[in-house]
Amino acid sequence: MAESILFNIVERVLESLGQHAPQGVVSSWGRRDLDKLEGAIRDAQLSKAKLIDFNNSMPVLKLSYDYLPSTLKRCFAYCSLLPNDYESENFELLRLWMAQGYIELFEESLGMEGVGDQYFFELLRRNVFQDVKEYDIVEVIRCRMHDLEKSQANPHDPCCSKGIIQQHQLLRFRSLRALECSNIETVPDSVRRFTHLSLRYLKFSHSSIKFLPDGITRLDNLKTLNVDYCRKLKELPRGFTKLVNLRHLGIRECHITDLTLNFGRLKPLRELNRFIIGQNNGVDTLSDLNLRGRLGIECRIWRTNAVIELRLPL
Q1: In sequence order, what are the beta bridge partners of 272?
Q2: Per residue in 68-122, pLDDT tens?
Q3: CA-to-CA distance for 28 and 40, rounded, in angstroms?
Q4: pLDDT tier for residue 4 given thresholds of 50, 70 and 90
Q5: Contact 46, 38 (CB under 8 A)
Q6: Who's near 90: CB < 8 A, 6+ residues apart?
Q7: Could you give the dihedral angle defined by the CA atoms of residues 159, 165, 171 and 173, in that order, rounded to the nearest 10 degrees?
Q8: Rounded CA gap, 150 and 153, in Å?
Q9: Beta-bridge partners for 141
Q10: Sequence-ordered list of residues with C-beta below 8 angstroms from that of 49, at least 6 positions apart, any chain
């Protein structure tokens, strides 16, 4: 009896949209059937939106956004803040989402990065991105946000902000999560004193900096540090292993010749694009880490215990 009543309600809702309810959609009260019901209503609304104005795609895009899960809506809104025609990489978007706290770990085995990958590919499947370019060798996907989709995101979302910050203004932003300093020769004095900030993402890539201030090691919440292509950078700061929450480290094409002592203490580290066998660390350090993705190994010196270190535990 309850099933018949439910079917009649669904039938009336869908008839108002010019559709008919599939009889099987209310065959039981299981989660799978509820998903079928939601899908049927969504398809009906999308069909009606297309009939309203064939030449205007905005109603369809609006519905596409409305049916995004709340987790994806936040990621969607964040992407809309990127400059027009700005090409993003999937890994970079993932790290930015993580810095903002948008990734919810619903399955421990996937890890934050695995969940972020699912977010990205779901948005990709929903045609949020365009001009997609895949680089299989390095597992990188470059894309930019679809122009029409960008207009659907809420530009007044309080969780997002963007802009160019002057050096003297940095200390005002005590809730700053992500910071990119490009085309600089020295780390600004204000950045050297940002230990009070809640920074989770810090990028200096393609800069001419020669050193990183020791104050960076007091950023307890830092998850991403990117100094790729800082070709004048010769070493990481002392006490680097104090960054107990660091998950992503980019040191590609730097002049760094050795990693800091006891590098294996960085247990949360998941992505490292360059590992250096030097005076402080041998290849056995890798067994202390839980890395994912591709890794380049560079041997700077021959260590006396190299043969023993190669005998990593299985």
Answers
A1: 249
A2: 888 888 898 888 887 777 788 889 999 999 999 999 887 777 889 999 999 999 8
A3: 15
A4: low
A5: no
A6: 117, 120, 140, 141, 143
A7: -10
A8: 6
A9: 134
A10: 59, 60, 62, 63
Best-predicted range by mean pLDDT among 40-49, 78-87, 128-137, 236-245?
236-245
Alpha carbon 235 to its chain's center: 26
Q: Strand runs (DSSP E) across the chain, as ranges?
A: 88-89, 129-135, 140-145, 178-180, 201-203, 224-226, 248-250, 271-272, 274-277, 296-299
Both structure tokens of 61 = 């895009």
Q: Read off the DSSP letter of residue 244.
A: T
Token code pair at residue 144: 């930019």
Residue with tokens 């809420």: 154
Q: Which residues contact 128 (CB under 8 A, 6 or more apart)?
A: 76, 79, 145, 146, 149
Q: How many CB atoms lie within 10 A of CB 142?
A: 15
Tokens representing 14?
């869908």
